[in-house]
Amino acid sequence: MSFDVLQSPVQFLQQAGFCAGQDWLREYEAWFEGEGQGISDAVDRGGTPWLRMFDRFGARVDEILYPPEYWRMLKHGYRAGVLWRVFEQNSLIPAYLLLYATGFYDAGLACPYTVSLSTIAPLSKYGDATLKARFLPNMLRREDSIWQGATWMTEIKGGSDLGAAVETVAQRDGAKWRLTGDKYFASNAGAELAVVAARQEGAPRNVRGLSLYLVPRRSEDGRLNYHIRRLKNKIATRSVPTGEIELRHSEGWLLGQAEHGIYLILEVLNLSRVANCMGSVALAQRAIADAYSFAAGRTAFGKPVIEHPLLLRQFEDRLQGLRAASRLAWEAARLLDKVWQQKPPYSEDYHLFRLVAHLAKYWTAEFAVQTAKWAMEVYGGVGTLAEYRVERWLREAMILAIWEGTPHRQMLDGLEAMQRKCAHKLLFQHLAGKAPEAQLREMEARVERQLALPEVEREGTLEKLFSDLASFTAAALARAPGK
Q: Is residue 144, in this structure, part of any structural domain at all?
């Protein structure tokens, strides 16, 4: 694979063996090359958007003030089919292709699409006929009036221990529920529809007491159904408004069975985790592409710096890592596409997906951070300057490592999947024929030894094994032909 291919997310995916030659995907990439990247840069330079809480007559409106060009950029992805193609083709792959292309140009912009997908999926899967008839058509529109979604789980106490951190309470009100509480990191604030984690009155204060609710922006009588307290001024991803949400007796509808809430919440997170993998790999590709363009044009000691052996070797190593990270991310997407419509109790295929998703999210996010850091080093001092964009990729990458669960969370959830569901055995069966047999058996023995350790040591020494398992899986998949 030549370095020139890195300048195009579509060409990279095609040469890596993925089916990415669709005209609509090429047109989407061409739009970003011609117009979208400039809008994205301007939005990033503009910083945190404004929140207009009241209109001139004092009525609460909670309007997020982006320039009109932002909304044109955002709605372009919805028109391209990041939601409607999923249900037209009964597959998540079109959405992840669009998310990959988006992440190459703007990792933050991929977030509204991701959380909208993670809203419409549980609605279509667990909503009753009345809910689906009322809300689904709004989210499947193919023009600018489409509704956006959001997934609001995290509260001020954090997102890892949801069982203890979620204090939002749901009270029954006839056929619907009333939610009261505060969500602290609420991406895509202002969305027309959100899925929200809450605890019914009297439910146990652990993960088994959580349920998932559908909460619209406006109640049935047309009033605002939730309020935005403020928007966050964060390190990057300025193209997604992240805020604090106040739920005060807000109308909501239960999705699925109340006692299955934690499973539904994890299904939502899994959709987003795979999207995070796409964003991480796409950002890493962009960072390598920009670094190569700079290195090919800059002269030092009488020749372009790309011709110096040490730097050239670093580029080759990064490209090899990109191939492996891409394989791992797309394997998670392919496995999810097989099981995303399953309901509990889940199949072994679902538990295999879970482990691969944790490995992929952990590995690709770290690869993105380190690659963006390295790209800045290739640029040298110029790389620290905002006008040359490379520093932006590092800012964006730092959030990818935290979104949808930190590395610690991926390791601990992956450990749980191996302990309780024997997902590691399913993984090694899945990798049979893709990795040398001796290496496969050696890695399997390492995992078994880790699982046999006392609890404190098992968790305390987990990181090296989990990192090696992710690297091993990525390398094995990279040897296999593309799909």
A: no
What total of structural domains would you count in the chain?
Answer: 3
Q: What is the pLDDT of residues 236-252, one digit of tens each?
A: 999 999 999 999 999 99
pTM above 0.90, yes or no: yes
Residue that the structure tokens 């408004």 belong to: 241
**What pLDDT is attached to residue 152?**
98
**For the segment 143-163, what is each residue's pLDDT rounded down to a tens digit?**
999 999 999 999 999 878 898
Q: Residue 12 sits in which domain range? A: 3-139
Helices 68-80 and 93-105 pack at an angle, to 10 degrees, of 150
Verify that 215 and 315 share a domain, yes or no: no
Closest-CA residue to 186 (of 245, 109, 268): 245
435: β partners: 432
